[in-house]
Amino acid sequence: MTLPLSHPALSATDPELAALVGAEEQLQADTLRLIPSENYVSQAVLEASGTVLQNKYSEGYAGRRYYEGQQNIDQVERLATDRAKALFGADHANVQPYSGSPANLAVYLAFAEPGDTVMGMALPMGGHLTHGWGVSATGKWFRGVQYGVRHDTGLIDFDEVRDLALKERPKLIFCGGTAVPRTIDFAAFGEIAREAGAVLVADVAHIAGLIAGGAHPSPVPHADVVSTTTHKTLRGPRGAMLMSREEHAKAIDKAVFPGLQGGPHNQTTAAIAVALHEAAQPSFRDYAHAVVANARALAEALLARGFELVSGGTDNHLILMDLTPKDVPGKVAAKALDRAGIVVNYNTVPYDPRKPFDPSGVRIGTPSLTSRGLTAAHMPTVAEWIDRGVTAARTSDEDALAAIRAEVADLMGAFPAPGLPTD
């Protein structure tokens, strides 16, 4: 399916850039996007992202700006914060962070001093760079200690987490990550944080949409601070939010502005407000549960084809595969699958003997395909394509990859993606 031409002003002004945008639209339309941190936003979110709100500078917060002419901007930001609080049941929300990593940095600024001990899941075990990992500023400016998962189950051992927390007494404990396929026990983390005298930060960037849709437990009753991006499963623009208990509101707001950044991106704030409105609708609840159902069905189909999955499956949107038994490195498999029209990312697995840039695993997820309307009934076909693609990667069979790509494009044509031009 060839998409119609769009963006007439951009095409007239900068045809070279317009061609690249068009090529990306075509790529997103034709391929099966299985990267768990990607999704399709609605046309309404896209439109909000490109409004004249782009023209405004708005340092400060609603009612307390350093620029005049904020009559409309203040209402936009209040809409977003009020919707965030209502959707997640939080006391306080800040929608100004530019993205997830700056949002996490604001948490450090609010509650810790350089050199303090912080605790998070180790990056190779599924954590995030900003949870105190050594190559990140959070690991260079703070003393990071990490917990992991059990070698035999791929699950967090909370007795070990508690022992580590009581031994190290961190200022902050992060829970959540980027490759965690199982339900996060926020209550258990909350108990440990209280016993250790730490601030608990739940980083739900990957699962915020599942939480909003009731497909994953909420951290709000257990965590002092909740950090999240607004894209991924939440299907909003590339932005972030911090939510907290009321007692921490001033510290969080002061850390975001003026602590780390200047004026918020008002067009993004507007798009966040739209996404939060969409997430409050009954149809979004159906979508969130369908994401999980699709992931579980895909995991079962992959297990039936002999794939090894970290923790043996998934409770959420994400599946982490160890391709060691298939005798194919993750990077080789990911690049071959990309040629087959199946977009994934290579990823380390727990206790991976290979290097991060050439790991053993592949990370996949179901948010994007669910947004297109695919159901659990399609997941055996997706698993078959992945199986054939991994086999072709091992045997360097480019004809097989081309055949898969044609089949993928045919199915994608029957399920148009939200927000993309259509005939």
TrEMBL record:
A GO molecular-function descriptor: glycine hydroxymethyltransferase activity
Site (Plays an important role in substrate specificity): H231
PROSITE patterns the record matches: SHMT (PS00096)
TM region(s), chain numbering: none
Keywords recorded for this protein, A-Z: Amino-acid biosynthesis, Cytoplasm, One-carbon metabolism, Pyridoxal phosphate, Transferase
EC number of this enzyme: 2.1.2.1
Requisite cofactors: pyridoxal 5'-phosphate
CDD domains on file: SHMT
Major enzyme class: transferase
Main location: cytoplasm
Modified residues (N6-(pyridoxal phosphate)lysine): K232
Keyword Transferase: yes
Catalytic activity as recorded in UniProt: (6R)-5,10-methylene-5,6,7,8-tetrahydrofolate + glycine + H2O = (6S)-5,6,7,8-tetrahydrofolate + L-serine
Subunit note: Homodimer.
Name of the protein in its database record: Serine hydroxymethyltransferase
Species: Streptomyces albidochromogenes
Gene name, Swiss-Prot/TrEMBL: glyA
